[in-house]
Structure formats: C-alpha cells, structure tokens
Amino acid sequence: MRVAYIADGRDDVLDDLAARISPRILETPERLDTAAAQLDEYFEGTRASFDLPLDFRLATGFRREVITHLPDIAYGHTASYAEVAAAAGSPRAVRAVGTACAKNPLP
Known about the structure:
Blueprint: H1 11-20, H2 24-27, H3 33-44, H4 61-69, H5 81-87, H6 94-102
Helix pairs in contact: 4-6, 5-6
C-alpha cells in the first residue's frame, strides 16, 4: 500500500501511481478507510500497532528484506541500522539499511 497526500492538480502523480500499481486505486479510494481510521487512532494515542495488509510490490531485493523487519521493532522502541541489517540477514549492510528506510514506500 502506498499512502500519498497529493495536492489538487497533481494528476501526474496519480497517473504514475496507477501505472505502477493499479488503476483500481484511483477508482476505489474507500479501500484506504481502514488505514485512515487506524492512523487517526495512532495519532490520538489509542493504537500502538496496526492490523493492515501490506503490499510490498514497490520494494525489491534487500530493501524489501529491511522493510519486512521494521514492524518487528516494538512500539516506542528504536533499533540501530546495524540491528536491522543483522535481522535482514546482512549484518554489514548498515548503510544500505539507511537507504532502504529512507526509500521505504510504506508509512
């Protein structure tokens, strides 16, 4: 799933997203209602974890390995890039973890 806040008149961004994932995203925005509700609860302080299906199609290779391990970091805790690299199976790929986190398509 990719969440984006797009200003009016930015149809180019929507067209790109539709081409990369599916035009159905544009036709069924209600699919994000559950995600929006859970985000609201999180920011209100009433939710510490999410129960949403994740679509990893925008991440491949090592970046995908990294972002699949990010939800394992407990609410309110942090993990170093070295710890995440080890969890993703490449303990020496510390800088690559930073890049993967920076380019993470999932919120």
